[in-house]
Design a protein that fits this description.
alpha/beta, 11 helices, F-box_AtFBL13-like, F-box/FBD/LRR-repeat protein, LRR_FXL15/At3g58940/PEG3-like, FBD
Length: 442
């Protein structure tokens, strides 16, 4: 007998738990010692991809056999992962009822069925559950009365589904990580609640909202312990978007992507975007160490009236996707970033048809303090060698006393001669930093 077979079942099951359940069960044919080891598994990872060649009936029979033959009384399931595509819901509810119990700690479901699968109500009062991940065709619609929710141990919740209810979020008193992706595919009969209140205990929030059909959208992010934020909201021209955000003193990393599929038009025929919302979010995020803004978001800052950037005393990394380059906008931003070490700019002209002016004030004449004392890395993506872009590169190389690397990504449609002339012209610009390396990426 091989040496690994002498190990106790607890260790063997721990090893097998890292394998897909089908492979773990197949070890039963190795020898008599292994014949029943898999029945003590408390971690099941079942994916119907491994059964595509043998058909749906084979997959259903496999899952039924696993749940029926394992030693459920002595070794209750602690982690259950199920990924499958089916034409009908049966027998998924039966499987879930067999899995949900007082020892379940982690549940992952990714289902693709013709009719959305309703979760058993018992899952909402599973006191041992620490992580719940629901994706694709899973319904949380229970009519006018959503079931009672009490998940006192749940710290991780990921929902990539069509609808959600505030009652679910409010029943998670210690939730730390929330990933919520709302799709614009609400099933007939489902009631989507346009106002969502995020739990205050959150440390990490990823929120993507594509429900553009609603006339009024209200999102409340009153989460003072938040450290990570990825916020993407896509609204339509008929939507009124309201986002309330608290002050985030512990913020480390923030990504903002606020956009509209079709802009409102004012009396002059000009687009009206979320020009007040984005400055409010920046004010709430002023303690972050990394800030990334997508092009539609920075466009709101371009058109915001009399907007003054908040003071970013801890910001180390800034990533800006801008609709077009504007020196005054960039310098005003840099003057509010006192300890910035890394700056990335990407031009995204293809996103827009109409150019627009920057409404902000003229920046101070002195060089931003971060540029003279802290900025070590600068990256310019989709560099087009416009006059103001070249002027800023010159300004940066002359004012950046501690720069280590400047990386220029040349626009891809330049011919070889144009690229050579750009590299030659930028390479001869004097640099204040003696250790600054100028790199070009084709």
């Amino acid at each position: 007998m091989d040496r690994i077979s002498y190990l106790p079942n607890t260790i063997l099951c721990d090893i097998l738990s890292y394998l897909p359940t089908k492979q773990a069960v197949s070890t039963s044919i190795l020898c008599r010692r292994w014949r029943h080891v898999w029945k003590d598994l408390q971690v099941l990872n079942i994916d119907d991809m491994h059964f595509w060649s043998s058909g749906r009936a084979s997959f259903d029979s496999f899952v039924n056999a696993i749940l029926a033959q394992r030693n459920a009384d002595s070794y209750p399931i602690e982690k259950f992962h199920l990924t499958c595509e089916k034409f009908e819901e049966d027998p998924i509810p039966t499987w879930l009822n067999a899995v949900i119990g007082p020892h379940l700690q982690e549940l992952y479901l990714s289902l693709n069925v013709m009719v959305g699968t309703n979760m058993p109500k018992a899952i909402f009062t599973c006191t041992s559950l620490k992580s719940l991940i629901l994706k694709r065709d899973i319904s949380l619609y229970y009519g006018p009365e959503f079931p009672d929710v009490y998940l006192p141990s749940l710290k991780n919740l990921e929902l990539d589904i069509a609808n959600v209810d505030n009652k679910l979020l409010s029943g998670c008193p210690v939730l730390e990580n929330l990933k919520l992706i709302l799709l614009d595919m609400t099933p007939e009969g489902c009631v989507y609640i346009p106002a969502i209140q995020m739990p205050r205990t959150l440390k990490s929030l990823t929120f993507e909202d594509y429900t553009i059909m609603w006339e009024e959208i209200n999102r409340v992010i009153d989460t003072p312990s938040l450290e990570y934020l990825y916020l993407k909201i896509v609204t339509s021209g008929i939507c009124e978007l309201q986002v309330s955000a608290s002050y985030f003193p512990n913020m480390v990393e923030a990504h903002l992507d606020i956009q509209e599929e079709e802009s409102h038009l004012d009396i002059h025929g000009e687009p009206v975007e979320h020009v007040c919302l984005v400055p409010m979010l920046l004010q709430a995020l002023r303690e972050t160490k990394l800030l990334a803004l997508k092009p539609y978001t920075t466009r709101c800052l371009f058109s915001a009236p009399a907007f003054k950037f908040p003071e970013f005393h801890r910001l180390l990394n800034l990533e800006l996707d801008v609709p077009f380059f504007n020196t005054n906008f960039l310098l005003n931003f840099l003057h509010s970033c006192y300890v910035l070490e890394a700056l990335v700019i990407r031009i995204c002209k293809e996103v827009y048809v109409r150019t627009m002016d920057y409404n902000g004030p003229t920046p101070p004449t002195m060089v931003p303090s971060c540029m003279t004392s802290h900025l070590k890395s600068f990256e310019f993506r989709e560099y087009q060698d416009a006059a103001d872009e070249r002027e800023f590169i010159t300004y940066l190389l002359k004012g950046g006393f501690v720069l280590k690397t400047v990386t220029i990504h040349l626009k891809s449609d330049f011919d070889i001669v144009t690229k050579y002339n750009i590299v030659k012209g930028l390479s001869v610009i004097p640099r204040s930093s003696t250790i600054c390396q100028l790199n070009f990426v084709d």
